[in-house]
Amino acid sequence: MLVAGDIVGGGCRIRFDHSGPALAWLAWTSNLRARHLHWIFGDQALFVRRGVFTDLGGFPDLPIMEDLEMSRRLHQRGRLVVLPATSTASARRFVEQGTLRMLVLMQYFKALYFLGIDPEKIRTRYLAARRRPQHAHPRVPHDRRTVGRPDAGSTRPTARSAGMRLGGTRPLRLLRRLERATRPIDPEFVAALARRWAELPAGVKTPAQLLGRHAVGCEGTHGVFPQCDLACTPCYHSREANRVRIDGPHTVAGVDAQMGLLRRLRGPRAHAQLIGGEVTLLDPDDHAEALLAMHRHGREPMSMTHGDIDEDYLRRLALDPDGRPRLTRLSFAGHFDSLMFGRRGIARPGCEADLNPYRQRFVDMFTRLRREHGIRFFLAHNMTVTPANLGQVAGVVRDASAMGFGMLSFQPAAFLGDARRWHEDYRDTTSEQVWTEIQGGAGTTLDSTVFQNGDLRCNRTAYGFWVGPHWHPLADGDDPRDLAARDAFFRYYGQVNFTGSPVPVLVAKLVRVAARHPRVVPIAVAWASRAVRRAGGLRAVARHRIRPMTFVMHSFMDAADVTPAWELTQRGQTSDDPRLRATQDRLAACHYAMAHPDTGTLVPACVQHSMLDPQENIKLRRLLPITPTRTTRHASPSS
């Protein structure tokens, strides 16, 4: 078994040196966990190949959970196996502390670790929760004179001593915190969903609509770092953007204020993009602080970049000066297309395929970071589409799908931003043409009506996964059973916020909903069975790694339409012109909002880019005048 080169380590099956149904159940679940979740602990005789162990720098320097973290890092490097041999572990802790009590505490401490609590704090709680074994307590000599007196020498348990044997108040507090962390429904999130639903135009309140039923929409920053060091045609930034200095404190303060308003108006959890100009022009420490500020306000951040960055920058972003991870997960969207000029090593791409080595290099940097430091990642690929590269979209889909991106996003060009960069008649490229090209690359029809994000004229989305060379939808819009399963999802899980929840916590939430509504279990099993059959059966799924992939198309509107439509909306008026009326409806259903703390309002992204960015950047140019010197950071793409 160990001859296989992809095996990097593993462990043995576990049993305990003490019998009992609870310990037998624990051993069985531990072996199940090791085989399927690849979490192998030290009492399972964890082993690892010497070369891999050296590459990882040995065991993680953690005061607790170091074996769990080690097995997670190993799984990212290759395959872990559970040998048929048995490792016999001591049950002393369970016997002394109480089996049920220790089981609860163990799950609680693992949940704390996945929630990102400092391991040193977890260790402190672990030591505090342990109690001395009963035989270690000195026995009180029996004295007939104390018989019947509850305050001297009595061995009859009082309520307080019974409570201590059950773990005292501290474990109860821990259990309460665990219960709160895994509550499926957050009333604040439910209220935010209700507000979002009420804001939507009647025309988009369909059975497929995600906004107001499971999500509040995406969010983004503005005016926090408008400068960029590549040239794009078209460019959605105003002409003043590159005349504003990059300033870390300004960025962090602006992000914190904008996220605070979003937290207040859009609820406790949402996805937000750290966007403006080129995010990697920020100092890595300022970039990291901005991401942490977003996390503090319950946002799951995604950094938007042109992808032309150094691996050293990525490491300095993810790791603190001592080389320890300061972010457990990174999410980036890399914008690659042949309409961007100035990329190092390929200043003017001849076609989209010329950029494939740069796309792959971008993904590979994150893969190495995960392998060496255990930092998880999610990557999206963005591309602007004009008549010049429309015919190459299908090829980009085919090529980029195999590189490691989890989302492919395409934007038909619009007339907004810097008018000096408008070099084609962008209206010659329609949304339908772009979506047809995306379907050509995916090799199948993409039904964007199964799940809807706002207005379909603005956003088309297809959720699914690759199994080998074939893409399969999460739900088949032509199958009434799948549509019924989607409706059941909204009914039972729509108000459960998935954003930012660690996998164990999310699983606990889903299980609690299923326990309250058991009918969801057969619905989910039937849906999963259909999905497996569509993917070619269990054999095909077992033979190929399942790769989730979402296809997205965002269609911005022209500034000439957005400006008068928004002005009418602000005055509470509805246009008689069909085109402007349609623009007003699309703005009301916008999936993507930006916050303005100075006015306490949110605006759609099209309004920000069409109307507000130019004024904002003029003010920023006065506040942050650019210095005459410019640092060149370009190197070869293979570095």
Main attributes of the structure:
three-stranded mixed beta sheet, 22 helices, globular, alpha/beta
Topology summary:
Blueprint: E1 7-16, H1 21-36, E2 47-48, H2 50-55, H3 66-77, E3 79-89, H4 92-97, H5 99-114, H6 119-129, H7 159-165, H8 169-181, H9 187-199, E4 218-220, E5 231-232, H10 248-266, E6 270-274, H11 284-296, E7 299-305, H12 311-318, E8 329-335, E9 340-341, H13 356-373, E10 376-385, H14 393-401, E11 407-412, H15 431-442, E12 459-467, E13 470-473, H16 480-493, H17 503-516, H18 520-534, H19 538-543, E14 546-554, H20 559-570, H21 578-588, E15 592-596, E16 601-604, H22 605-623
Parallel strand pairs: 1-3, 4-6, 4-15, 6-7, 7-8, 8-10, 10-11, 11-14
Antiparallel strand pairs: 1-2, 5-9, 12-13, 12-14, 15-16
Structure description:
With 639 residues, the protein is of the alpha/beta class. The chain folds into 2 domains: 1-90, no CATH class; 187-211 and 218-483 and 547-622, TIM Barrel, CATH 3.20.20. The chain is built from 22 helices and 16 strands. The protein has helices at 21-36, 50-55, 66-77, 92-97, 99-114, 119-129, 159-165, 169-181, 187-199, 248-266, 284-296, 311-318, 356-373, 393-401, 431-442, 480-493, 503-516, 520-534, 538-543, 559-570, 578-588, 605-623, and strands at 7-16, 47-48, 79-89, 218-220, 231-232, 270-274, 299-305, 329-335, 340-341, 376-385, 407-412, 459-467, 470-473, 546-554, 592-596, 601-604. The strands form 3 sheets. An 11-stranded mixed beta sheet has the order 13-12-14-11-10-8-7-6-4-15-16. The longest helix has 19 residues, at 248-266. The chain is globular. It starts with 6 loop residues before the first strand and ends in a 16-residue tail after the last helix.
